[in-house]
Amino acid sequence: MNPNKNKMRGSEILKGHNYKIKDFTNSNIAVKLLILGFLPGTVIYLIRRSPFGGAYYFGVNGNRIALRKNEAEAIVVE
Amino acid sequence: MAKKTSKYKIALIGNPNSGKTSLFNSLTGMHQHVANFPGVTVDKKTGNLKIDKELTVSLIDFPGTYSLYPNSDDEKVVAEILTNPADKDYPDAVIYIIDPFDFKRQMLLLTQLQDLGLPVLVVLTMKDLAIKKDIKIDIKKLSDKIQNPVIFFSNKTKENISEIKMNIRDIFENKSKVNTCYSLNSFEKDIVEKFKDKLNFNTDYQGLLQIHHSDWLKYISKDLKKEIKEYKSKISFKDISLQIDETLERYRIFNKKIKDIIKHKNSSGKGITDKIDDIITHKIAGPLIFFIMMLFMFQAIFSWSELPMEWLENGFTILSGYIKNNFSHNWITGLLADGIIPGLAGVLVFIPQIFLLFLIIGIMEEVGYMSRVIFMFDDLMRKFGMNGRSMISLISGGACAVPAIMSTRTINNWKERLITIMVTPLISCSARIPVYTLLVVFAVPDKDIGIFNARGLALMGLYSMGIIMALISSLVMKYVIKAKGQSYLMISLPEYKKPIIKNIGLYVKEKVGAFVFGAGKIILMVSIALWFLASYGPPGALKKAKKHAIETGAKKNLNEEQTLNLIAAEKIEHSYIGYLGKSIEPAIKPLGFDWKIGIALITSFAAREIFVGTMATIYSVGSTDDNLKVSEQMAKDVNLKTGEKTYNSAVAWSLLLFYVFALQCMSTIAVVRKETGSWKWPIIQFLYMGTLAYFFSFSVYNFLN
Fold first, then answer.
1. pLDDT digit string, tens, across residues B249-288
2. Which of A30, B270, B352, B553 could form an SS bridge with B558, CB 3.0 to 4.6 Å?
3. Could you give the dihedral angle defined by the CA atoms of residues B147, B149, B150 and B155, in that order, rounded to the nearest 10 degrees?
4. Where are the alpha helices (DSSP H) in B397-540?
5. Inter-chain contact B378–A49, Cβ cutoff 8 Å?
6. Residue B404 has pLDDT above 80, yes or no
7. What's the pLDDT tens digit per position in B554-595?
């Protein structure tokens, strides 16, 4: 599977692949993500999920940032 | 900049974890003043920095913030002040602190500050670490591009402090020019123009922010808020999409500017932080490591603090005895020896434990571990209506609920914060330990079950019950408390770094201070009040009691000391507090408590451990230095009517559970009142915890009896 071909949500991305942020679905969350460096065009990858599965540990723009599921869902990647 | 004030104000601003507090500590030393920003419980730290003989500036450490579009109360404080030139904390200049590992993202707030028209000195921190990691930053080029002076600072060597001072002097000698980044679009310009006469701002961007945030900014009048709101909807001013556009535009501008300025060594391999996180945030190992660490932490705290606590206790007993023996007996020495000194002792003996706990939490915070804890447990805690940040408060509650409740300020969602505040006192704190250890003797026989001691297991059970009940209560409150407001995790997981001792020192100082001045004041006041209630009674009652005690002593051939102790016991029975204890007896009888326990329940409102001291007085032991003596006397106590022992295991369990659940602590009530801003929540908390206590005590007493 080549993940670069499909549009998907930040909550669906697989470990070990790099994705590109395309867009956001929720502007209330988007403004906050932008401030943290989640910009359209930047590379995002999943480092791991939390022990109970509800939080995501991402690498973005050289930063490590943890998001909740609903926050990750608001990111459209490809 | 042509202000004539002798003292300039400089704001320290930066993202959370940017090394801002370290720089503040380096610049001001230990001479800091901590207060609250007006109207909110957000810490405001100020300190002085001497630039040269003539110029001393005042530094204000602002809460860490990502942008001037705030997401939390802390960030709101920053926006509230920086958008209002009339604010008394409005700075004359800004020192903007940047963490070089996370350089790009932090440019956003820098450009916003520039557009406020404030002179900015940029300080990059962690120079030593950056060199170690082979991060190369072209400082001169950066300074040229952003048109602000830039200093690369190392907290270790502190070699650039003089450079920082020089630059500050330059700012105030008008050598620095103010530059801008973002230009308002025509739509934004129009609305700023429209309200120009009604708002007070220095730059158009400041005006735009005022209009953006108008619905919650405190300095904008109600009428104006309404007017702006109506106008916004008329021209369909879309706050969010405009903010998105502005943010993207800023990124576009500065990304172009700072290209090629920062060079990371090719970091395709895993860094230390990633390797550590592989283990420490691992699905299974992560939580396991956390719980083992917590277990060791509390074990260490209790064993290390035992000795200093003993010294403190003995010291106070000696002091109290010295005053009694060497000064004439009047009400002043009585108040001092039996009211104030034991009250102070009640506060100070807990300092070793609280110091150690916050030392360890401080280290975990400083190295960067705490944000991992928040990440790992956020979703679990959310199921209970709290969030990842609640973990830190609940752990702190194991020492003392007062600083623990204060630490909930980092929780940005009100409902989650409130629930954390409401359940934190259910975690067994240090003050419950003396009560538990005294009573567990009556509750459980001293024998081994397998490899464990039965009493040790009982103590562990009591702790667990507190924790389980905290979780159940929070689950209930999650469905009962109605409060709106969005909740976010969005937390940065910084690089692990070596802790800076000074920062930890200041953190511990702040927390211990919160305990001493927050809880201590109240413990002392209540102790004094209780001393009055215990030393005075209805007219004539005390004299009669004394006479009766002396007669009994003579009849029973007691020696002088025993007689004195008997007098003390009879006196307290006939004092106001004795009558109080008797008057509540009907209410606590179903729990198996008599009026003597009633007295101790009342006195332990100052702090739970006072229960032990009161028991000592009631059972005429005289002093509290010997726990064994107290329990021996309690063991001898026999109910006159039934002939049974007062402290059988049913009563002891009932009392133990009462102390697990009841909010027997004035200081906690006071701090909850302060943090929630009303009496409503402490009253609800007192009642629900009281109900739990009553229910469980009643059940266990009737079950065992």
1. 999 998 888 877 877 665 556 788 899 999 999 999 999 9
2. B553
3. -160
4. 401-406, 414-423, 432-443, 454-480, 501-513, 520-535
5. no
6. yes
7. 887 777 777 777 787 788 888 898 899 999 999 999 999 988
Strand partners, B481: none
Q: How far is A1 from chain B (nearest CA, A)?
A: 23
Q: What is the pLDDT of residue B474?
A: 97
Q: Could you give phi then psi for residue B4, rounded to 5 degrees?
A: -100, 0
Residue type, B304: W
Checking DSSP bridges between strand B491-492 and strand A63-68, what pairing results, if any? antiparallel
pLDDT tens-digit series, residues B12-48: 999 987 888 888 988 887 677 777 776 666 778 899 8
Residue in the block written with tokens 């000195």? B121
Instruction: Kindly report the number of other CB atoms within 10 A of residue B25's CB atom.
Output: 20
Cα B540–Cα B546–Cα B551 angle in degrees, nearest 5: 125
Distances (CA, A) of B239 to B82, B214, B268: 19, 11, 39
Considering only CA atoms, which of B272, B241, B261, B250 is closest in space to residue B180?
B250
Name the residue among A66, A51, A16, A63 with its Cα closest to residue B103: A63
CA B621 to CA B623: how far, in whole Å?
Answer: 6
Chain A closest CA to B374's CA: distance in Å? 9
Of A31, A61, A64, the CB nearest to B247: A31
User: What DSSP assignment string belongs to B623-650?
Assistant: -SS-HHHHHHHHHH-B-TTT--BSS-HH
Tokens 């500590």 belong to residue: B25
CATH fold of B8-172 reads Rossmann fold (3.40.50)
Sort out which chain A residues have CB atoms less than 8 A from B494's CB and list them.
64
Number of domains in chain A: 1
Among B607, B596, B704, B599, which residue's Cα sits nearest to residue B652?
Answer: B704
CATH number at residue A35: 2.30.30.90
Q: Where are the domains of chain B?
A: 8-172, 519-704
Q: Which long-range contacts (CB under 8 A, 24 or more apart) does B71-74 make?
A: B71/A32, B71/B412, B71/B488, B71/B490, B72/B412, B73/B40, B73/B42, B73/B409, B73/B412, B74/B42, B74/B409, B74/B410
The CA-atom distances, in angstroms, between B700 and each of B330, B456, B549, B686, B703 are 45, 19, 36, 21, 5
- In the structure, what pLDDT confidence band is assigned to residue B2 with cuts at 50, 70 and 90? very low
From chain A, pick out residues whose CB is under 8 angstroms from the CB of B490.
32-33, 36, 65-68, 71
pLDDT band of residue B659 (cuts 50, 70, 90) is very high
Is pLDDT above 50 for B127? yes
pLDDT tens column, B586-600: 999 999 998 889 989
Q: Using an 8 Å Cβ cutoff, are B20 and B12 in contact?
A: yes
The residue type found at B691 is T
Domain that holds residue A68: 3-77
Q: In whole angstroms, what is the distance from residue B54 CA to residue B85 CA?
A: 26
Give Cα separations from B438 to A25, B627, B634, B654 (angstroms): 59, 7, 10, 14
